[in-house]
Amino acid sequence: MNEQHAALLHHAPHSQKPADTWARLCCEQAILAVEHGCYGVGAVLVNQAHELLCSARNQVFVDDHYNSSGHAEMQLLDTLEAEHPQQDRSVLTLYVSLQPCLMCYGRILLAGIPRVRYLAVDKPGGFTGKGLPPAWAELAAHTSIHQARVDSYWINLAEQAISTLQDRQVMRQRVLSAWRGTLQP
Length: 185
Ligand SMILES: [Zn+2]
Known about the structure:
Distance between the termini: 21 Å
Strand content: 15-25%
Bound molecules: zinc ion
Number of helices: 7
């Protein structure tokens, strides 16, 4: 991690809020995603004993390939399902640095994750759960997705990771290039 980015984590205020530990890890993953040329989003899964089960970051651009499903939550749930098949999902909480999108919202429901706490609100892209078909609404009724109660420092850093720490225009152009089949290394 570069020095400037590391300082953002290092200068965080000390807080007693239990979720701040997970907020820090989400932000760390988000910043690593930025450094790897991906969208600045990170996520972790935590169990009832407040232990970290797994962590992940956005990886839509890895090895110069575009992976449209490489969102942090998708990567995280891929790891859960591949590496922890015996884990009872009902005790898990998913923390993510940005409000889940439509795709990830659906995946979270299908993966049986009962609690999601996000840091930054994604006004243009976050899915609120409104307008779901009945079967999905039934799944959503058993899932609690809210903004995390954490120090505002982490909310602000999560917002920076997806905005000012990266050039969104460049990211958009890379996606458009991938769609055209002309993504350059
Ligand atoms: Zn997503």
